[in-house]
Amino acid sequence: MEYKISPSLMCMSLIDIRQQLEVLNRRADMLHIDIMDGHYVKNITLSPFFIEQIRPHTPLVLDVHMMVENPSDFIEPIARAGADFICPHAETINRDAFRIINQIRSLGKKVGVVLNPATPVEYIQHYIHLLDKITVMTVDPGYAGQPFIPEMLGKIAQLRDLKQQKGYRYLIEIDGSCNLRTYQDLMSAGAEVLIVGSSGLFTLDSDLDIAWDKMLDQMRQARHAA
């Protein structure tokens, strides 16, 4: 199985953004963009304006992860800015999940949801068949560089089994501590998209091309062992 690789742009060097984006355009499958409002999580990172600024400079799929209290306030600006996937947290939309899913679809975008570590798959059972992607948080949301939560491997396997049994179309994406220590377990559990950040890519070498080659070598070793 081939795995999609989605670098997290909050972990890149914003000083070297043009140079690093040129490397990612050649090598990545998609780009992961975190939007945080300082309320749902304490941190504040990227924004719809950031999406608008990089959209003309990359042909890659832009996957937007919304860590915000009120997703409906952000969906249209994010769509207009050029996102391809719009992915709110399930915990923030269950009071109006179908309305939000329909809103994202009406804007011509793909729909994802994100599950926090403590949120079970059953929380999204009534609309799981409508989703293009499900992101499993393997760390608590809000900050880069946190330790992996191994209990999430069972959740990933549950989503893999449901997808196979029901014929669902969603991609299974992993967000949090995707690196040499976790690749083998994630691949065995059923991960399909790996979001790579500080530990998985950007700190492997100051030259991003060399860092990418090191990451691929680690993934090949994990794939052979899985």
From TrEMBL:
Source species: Rahnella laticis
Matching NCBIfam families: PRK05581.1-4 (NF004076), PRK09722.1 (NF007266)
The protein's Enzyme Commission number: 5.1.3.-
Coiled coil: none
InterPro entries registered for this protein in UniProt: Aldolase_TIM, AlluloseP_3_epimer_AlsE, Ribul_P_3_epim-like, RibuloseP-bd_barrel
Keyword Cell division: no
Pfam family for this entry, one: Ribul_P_3_epim
Gene3D superfamilies for this protein: Aldolase class I (3.20.20.70)
UniProt binding sites for substrate: H65, G142, Y143, A144, G145, D175, G176, S177, G197, S198, S199
Binding site for a divalent metal cation: H32, D34, H65, D175
Encoding gene per record: alsE
Pathway field: Carbohydrate degradation; D-allose degradation
Domain of life (superkingdom): Bacteria
Role summary: Catalyzes the reversible epimerization of D-allulose 6-phosphate to D-fructose 6-phosphate. Can also catalyze with lower efficiency the reversible epimerization of D-ribulose 5-phosphate to D-xylulose 5-phosphate.
Cofactor entry: a divalent metal cation
Active site (catalytic residues): D34, D175
Family membership noted in the UniProt record: Belongs to the ribulose-phosphate 3-epimerase family. AlsE subfamily.
Reaction equation(s) it catalyzes: D-allulose 6-phosphate = keto-D-fructose 6-phosphate
Alphabetized UniProt keyword annotations: Carbohydrate metabolism, Isomerase, Metal-binding
Annotated protein name in UniProt: D-allulose-6-phosphate 3-epimerase
Principal EC category: isomerase
